Structure formats: structure tokens, C-alpha cells
Amino acid sequence: MRKLLALLFLGPLGCHAAVECNGVPISTGHFIVVDAALSGHPARLALDPIRNVLLDRRFADSAGLDVLSARQVGYEGRVSIGGAGAGQQEPGFGTGLELQAGEVIRKLPPVVVVDLRGPLGPAFTKIDGLLGTDLFSEHVLDLDIPAGCLTIVPRDRFEAPETEALAIERMRNRPVVQGSVEFPNGERHELRFLLDFGMSGGVRLSTRFVDEHHLDEQLPTTVPEHMETGLGGALRSLETKATAVELGDARWRNLPIRLARETEGADADPPWDALVGVALLKTRHIIYDPAGDRFWVLPAGQ
Q: What's the CA angle centered on 204, arms 201 and 206, to 5 degrees?
């Protein structure tokens, strides 16, 4: 029996300088990076909408972690792991690990260990793995990206903003919100956006959605100068222009977006229509309540 563990990840971010932070400082060179620790080993982990931690094999080796096979942790048959892109890897598993991020300490279930630097390229050389946002189910993540600060608030002490939250729908255990995109030809589409905190770009429409609406035929497109990569390797995209993207009351105008063109991998035919990533959210103050399935997009500084 073949099992597939699917993860979502695309590529690099823009760079923002951190200011004084009363929470957990984050750096945003190529990824939203949190300085954490795994069983006492310092680890630089990039936020991503997975449910656990995923580690780069080089970090596991340098930290002296025991990496077990899939069979040793209870899987039957061949196990493979993939994400955006067509490639697959056979993972190992780290067990008995404890995560510390800020004041949060959690014992982890078996952690997937794969080669991240190979498919994701040199931008990943200073990152040790991915940190799943839903590990913080007892907390609310207050993420002020322009200020370079992550505040992890216990849910029983969280005071919600007066602004109405966007409701989150879970698809394949991933957070999805409703939004819209408008194009220069006057077309407006309502979309289901995956909140992909690990994606470097702004908006990427799935191959399925592009094909259903013939967007590659109806819109002027170019081949991007810099192509994205995912956990499954190189991605295929076209680039076009949107006159507006909306998430609730938040609106972005006149921005480039990507149209996925690969026929395999996580962005080919997902249940959501598009990904929204950090290049779009980095100018805003965002708050994510995983257990409450709520998401706020606030102006920077609010």
C-alpha cells in the first residue's frame, strides 16, 4: 500500500527589518522564520500551514537525531511525501522531540525528515525546517509582519479585534478563507484562498481554476523571470496582473499574480482555488486563531 503525505510550500519572501518586539522576533529574509528549539537544539523554522514540524535532513544529522523509517513508526508499505511540484521523496521520521517556541512547549508526534534544501534551493540553506501553525491550537498567533514580531497569546487571554474576522473553512486540514480577484478585463471571481504562510509569492491560482475559467487564454500573460519551487521541485507558472484582490475588508490593488500550469502536485487540482502568501500579507497585521477558525487582516500598526 502506498501512502502520500502532502505538504504545501513554494518559495522565497521579500526582506523586512525587525523592530523591537515584546513577543517572539521573526525574520523575513526568504521565509517567515521563528527561532525555536527542538529538544534543546536551536532551530530556525519557517512558518507553514502544516500540522506538525518538518525537518531538513541536514539539521537532523547535525543535531544527532535518530531518524527512523516509516515502517519503524508504524506505517505499512511505501510512504512518500510531496507538495507543489511533481517530485516525491521517501521520508524518515524523528521521534521523541519537544518543541519550544517562545513560551510554548509541546511534545511532538513523529516528525517528518526530508531533504528540503534540494528541491527548495539555496534560499533554504539557513532554515532548519517548517513550523506548522496549527501546533498552536491552544493559542492565537498575532503576526505583525511589518514589525517583525510574533505574539503567541493563550486563547483564554486573547481579546479579539473589533473588526469582523474571516471565517476559516478546513480543506484537507488546511485553513481556507473566501476572497475575490478582479482582472483588467472586468472579470471578477470569488475564490477559496488557502492561507499559505509558507508561500513566498502573493497569489497563485491553481491549474484547475485557471483551466475552468480559461484565464490563460483570456488574460495577457508572461513567463516569469524567476520561477518558483516547491517541495516537489520546479513549478510552472504564467504571470498576469490583477486590478484588485480582496480578503474581507482588506484590498490590494494592481498586483502581479501567478497562474499555476503544472499538472501534478499540490497546486494542480486542490479543493481550494488559490494560494495567498506572504508577499501579499507582509504589509498587514494578521491574526490567526487555529482552534477558533478565525483570521483577521488588519492595517499595519493596528
A: 150
Domains and CATH numbers, the chain: 3-155 (2.40.70.10), 157-299 (2.40.70.10)
Q: CA–CA separation, 117 vs 206, rounded Å?
A: 24
Tell me the pLDDT tens digit for each residue of 237-284: 999 999 999 999 999 999 999 999 988 888 889 999 999 988 898 889
Residue range 181-200, pLDDT digits in tens: 999 999 999 999 999 988 88
Q: What residue type is assigned to position 204 of the chain? A: R
Q: Which residues contact 71 (CB under 8 A, 6 or more apart)?
A: none
Residues 11-41: b if buried by 16+ CB within 10 A, e if exposed: bbbeebeeeeeebbbbbbebbbbbebebeee
